[in-house]
């Protein structure tokens, strides 16, 4: 039986639950291979190489053994070297504990909004939107993604990353990570359902109106969220 992974304490800036991707200038991200760096691997770089702590000190801060720190640090250094020397993109994704993975995905800003004065969220959004907010589909990252795209809307501060695997001119798998409001979560979740198994031609035909329609509509002030998901797919 596989031993369950211990929760790991991480304090570096990328702990917020969505991915960052760094790449060489001059080449579109869609044309590049992406090396995925686990969040715990990043944390060992942060502590040992960034702050100069010993592996034993890093282990105590992260709540793991020195041997685990040594293994993660060696893997992280190798991946960074491969990205730099091989002119490849480096993706950094969240690495939640098993306890966090078992929890329903929620978003703080959405829950906070629910407590503000005004009509209940269920009166503003359709049942489908509420379902996708509280039970988003296809959340996470893909280690074997051959396309990684990012999008963001400066009007609301949302940030979205799609990890897509394409095989035989079809989307064989897709995952997403997001920092955003409830409508942004719902539209991104629905977009992955519409795209899963679709041909590239069919993907290009998916726009913000189709995403909103699949959710039984969105308030006019939240249509930019469906546009963010659609623009990322294009």
Q: How would you sum up this structure, described in words?
A:
The chain has 234 residues and is of the alpha+beta class. The protein has 11 helices and 6 strands. It has helices spanning 39-50, 55-62, 66-85, 98-102, 108-114, 121-124, 127-134, 182-195, 200-204, 208-214, 223-233; strands spanning 20-22, 34-38, 89-93, 147-153, 158-167, 170-179. The strands form 2 sheets. Strands 1-3-2 form a 3-stranded mixed beta sheet. β4 and β5 (158-167) form a beta hairpin. α7 packs across α8 and α10 crosses α11. The chain is globular and about 55 Å long. The termini are far apart.
Short description:
Helix content is 43%, strand content 17%. It has eleven helices and six strands. The radius of gyration is 19 Å and the shape is globular.
Query: Roughly how many Å apart are the termini?
Result: 43 Å
Largest sheet, in brief, is: 3 strands, mixed
Shape: globular
- The overall strand count is 6
Helix content: 40-55%
Q: Pick out the low-confidence regions.
A: 95-117
Strand order of the largest sheet: 1-3-2
Provide the structure class: alpha+beta
pLDDT average, as an integer?
A: 79
Q: Tell me the series of helices and strands, N- to C-terminal.
A: EEHHHEHHHHEEEHHHH
Q: How large a portion of the residues is in β-strands, by DSSP E?
A: 15-25%
Helix tally equals: 11
Rg of Cα set: 19 Å
């Amino acid at each position: 039986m596989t031993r369950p992974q211990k929760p790991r304490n991480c304090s570096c800036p990328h702990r917020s639950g969505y991915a960052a991707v760094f790449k060489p200038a001059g080449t579109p991200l869609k044309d590049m291979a992406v090396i995925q760096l686990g969040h715990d691997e990043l944390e060992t770089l942060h502590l040992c190489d960034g702050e100069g702590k010993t592996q034993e000190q890093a282990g105590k801060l992260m709540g793991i053994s020195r041997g685990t720190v040594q293994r993660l640090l060696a893997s992280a250094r190798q991946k960074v070297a491969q990205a730099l020397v091989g002119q490849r993109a480096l993706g950094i994704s969240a690495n939640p504990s098993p306890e966090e993975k078992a929890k329903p995905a929620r978003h703080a800003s959405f829950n906070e909004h629910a407590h503000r004065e005004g009509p209940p969220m269920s009166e503003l959004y359709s049942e489908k939107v509420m379902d996708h907010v509280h039970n988003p589909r296809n959340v996470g990252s893909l280690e074997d993604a051959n396309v990684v795209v990012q999008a963001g809307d400066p009007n609301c501060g949302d940030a979205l990353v799609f990890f897509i695997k394409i095989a035989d001119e079809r989307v064989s798998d897709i995952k997403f990570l997001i920092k955003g409001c409830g409508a942004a979560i719902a539209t991104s979740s629905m977009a992955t359902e519409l795209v899963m198994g679709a041909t590239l031609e069919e993907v290009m035909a998916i726009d913000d109106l189709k995403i909103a329609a699949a959710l039984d509509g969105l308030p006019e002030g939240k249509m930019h969220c469906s546009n963010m998901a659609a623009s990322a797919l294009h």
